[in-house]
Specification:
Strand order of the largest sheet: 11-10-12-13-14-18-19
CATH class of the largest domain: Alpha Beta
CATH architecture of the largest domain: 3-Layer(aba) Sandwich
Number of strands: 19
CATH topology of the largest domain: Rossmann fold
Helix content: 25-40%
Strand content: 15-25%
Radius of gyration: 21 Å
Structural class: alpha/beta
């Protein structure tokens, strides 16, 4: 597939305008949403992106360069484009409100096509561009692969959605989303606490670290909560088109809920095949299901009632969410998903940490990273995916789980 690269640039063509190239996905008119509030945010130095001082700083090369990596093409493009679009949107807002610590921000994105080696190649391309910090990669396996290189370079990395445990095994890497074990435990707790079911079937991808990690903790917590797992059936990346056997075992076991800790493409096939069988349990997944409504040629009515554990509901009525959804729709068309929200929060976490540590773009990549490691443990961010988010030195976030349900072809809060 053709490699995709997009740039948003803070370099000015005049003192009144930011020269900005389109981000990944569809480009659109600029739309300013309110940024995630942080306890360390300084008052905006200017509400205009094109002040003379900012233009001069950008022209002299004194801008923060942030890279973003994700699958912009292929089966997981809904994830990567959401992450990149939101990073670009956040950068535009940040620039319009005085930048980070008074400096403008450039974001350049690269397509990894959900391939580990291509993700590493994308990282090297961004390094050649002059990247100082990385948002991504989007998926777990790619994030783990790239972290081997950010560790050696001592470059700050924050993955919006890489949830595998090993994504943050090095001290230079942080994440916005829950880890896989945390998602598994929280899912079992939510199902039990809300009395959604007593007998559970599980269909998972044993070849995927994301799916396997969630499943392991889900089973342990489900048993502790008094839930009965009647079937636990796996598939692999080489055999993921026919799920009739897995569904039949769940049905025969009397499962009134089927847990799907998998990605949305496979989930859409499972829903179609369950419908053909006349099997209508509650289907419950994690953040990997976010995107199922965008699958080509999928009858979204089959997803009615599907639940997923996710920290973001686009229909929330708080001002931050409403402004973000409106701005995202204006720039890119459509409703942002949880991956977009995670990426948006990642950008504002970077902003908060940069300002907390008084980091400037003339610092070395390593010096920026060292300062960010400490500052990330000292900030609190009121973001789209949680209020009062904080981070541990381990890279793990502290936040509250939420769930959404699909109703009338849209994600709505399950609360």
């Amino acid at each position: 597939m053709k490699k995709t690269s997009r740039v948003i640039s803070a370099v000015m063509v005049s003192a009144m305008a930011v020269s900005m190239l389109a981000g990944c996905g569809n480009s659109g008119a600029s739309g300013a949403a309110s940024g995630a509030a942080t306890s360390t945010d300084a008052a905006a130095a200017s509400s205009a992106a094109g002040s003379a001082d900012t233009a001069a700083a950008a022209a002299s090369g004194k801008t923060f360069k942030i890279g973003a990596i994700g699958p912009l093409t292929g089966g997981a493009a809904a994830y990567g484009n959401a992450v990149c679009n939101a990073a670009v949107l956040a950068a535009k807002e940040i620039n319009a409100n005085g930048g980070m610590n008074g400096y403008q921000v450039e974001v350049k994105t690269e397509d990894d096509e959900l391939d580990n080696q291509k993700s590493v190649n994308a990282y090297n391309t961004l390094k050649d561009w002059g990247m100082q910090m990385l948002v991504g990669p989007t998926t777990s396996a790619c994030s783990i692969a790239v972290s081997e290189y950010t560790k050696d370079d001592n470059m700050f990395q924050i993955t919006p959605s890489g949830s595998a445990v090993d994504c943050v095994k090095y001290d230079n890497v942080f994440r916005v989303c829950f880890s896989d074990p945390a998602q598994g435990t929280a899912s079992a707790d939510y199902i039990a606490d809300h009395k959604l079911a007593t007998k559970i079937g599980i269909i998972y991808d044993s070849s995927d670290v994301y799916s396997s990690g969630i499943t392991q903790n889900f089973v342990t917590e489900a048993q502790a909560k008094g839930l009965t797992v009647v079937s636990q059936e796996a598939f692999t990346a080489d055999n993921k088109t026919d799920f009739s056997v897995q569904l039949q075992k769940a049905k025969d076991g009397g499962a009134d809920l089927v847990f799907l800790p998998i990605y949305y493409t496979e989930a859409s096939l499972i829903l179609q095949q369950a419908n053909t069988m006349g099997y209508k349990p509650t289907f419950f997944g994690c953040d990997g299901l976010d995107g199922i409504l965008s699958v080509d040629n999928f009858d979204t009515s089959l997803a009615e009632g599907v639940m997923l554990l996710t920290p973001f509901a686009a229909d929330a009525d708080d001002d931050l969410t409403k402004n973000f959804v409106a701005a995202y729709n204006k720039d890119y068309g459509g409703t942002p998903n949880q991956f977009a929200a995670d990426s948006y929060d990642a950008m504002y976490a970077i902003k908060a940490a940069v300002e907390k540590a008084n980091i400037t773009p003339d610092m070395s990549v390593s010096d920026i990273c060292e300062a960010m490691k400490t500052a990330m443990t000292q900030i609190t961010v009121d973001g789209l995916t949680s209020k009062g988010m904080t981070w541990q030195a381990s890279g793990e976030p502290n936040k509250q789980p939420k769930a959404v349900v699909i109703k009338n072809g849209a994600y709505v809060s399950a609360e």
